[in-house]
Fold:
Amino acid sequence: MKLKLHLSGSAEPFVSYLKNYLKIRESLLLEIDTTSRAFVAKTFTEDKSAIRFASITFDDANISFVSDDGEAERGAARIKAGILIQLKKFIQIVERFGSDVDAEGKADFDIEVSYEPFALKEGGTDFVSTQIQFSSKILKMKIDGFRPTEIAYLPDDVFINNIFNVSDAVRAEMTPAKIADIIKISDIIKMDARRDALSFYVEGKTLYVKDVNISVKSSDNQKSDFVYTIGEVDHEPDYPISLIVNREKFVKMVDKSEETFTVILGKYTVNGSGAVDRILLDSTSNPTKIVIGAMKEN
Structure:
């Protein structure tokens, strides 16, 4: 089975989309949704305490749908392209083809995805990429695919309903300028990537972030070299909101972001009891959603 796509224009939007994942891990399970004409992907840090979920439409990536001879059999199921420890190489290939441009600065090349059905042990069928080939008038390159079982997969509904989900939440906006500020300021006083942390907390109707350093002595967490005002939340919470996250993971998830995010802090409820154990970041301009879990003290 083969899906054929065509990129005409700048390859930069697609490259930028992929590079946001490369900052987190070198592997990616890229899903190709021909029904909604979009690429969809989720990736997590090694300990799975931080997750990025984002999509980009074919149109926004300057990619058009050409043909798919397996569409009738596949239906609405996505094609899963496993890029195992080769995401950097995959991006370099896209960049190479994107560098051949015409007088108007437009690239022009095909992306052909070979895929096949794969029976799941629990029942059902995945449609898995076995090879992705890029071709232009002067060059052809390919990269082999991997079984999705080699890369952890998180279904969309599990992410939305079980992970990106808190109750009694407050919300505030965090612009790209504020994100850059937080990263730059915290970079000045950082000491140990394993222990440097950021504490997001609400006082009254204001959301702040300050630096903390996780250590054996919990009293050390009270020592902060900066306190930064993010902005007003939509309402004053009736319970304490404070969350400590690993600074390095925050940077991996949002560094050089061009998006404004809605910061969501609330209770994650399990068996009737709720705790503030994660921060949710929801892009105001596209489907990007980020979850960063609380950092545990030593």
The chain is about 20% helix and 45% strand. The chain has a mean pLDDT of 92. The domain at 164-293 is CATH 3.70.10.10 (Proliferating Cell Nuclear Antigen).
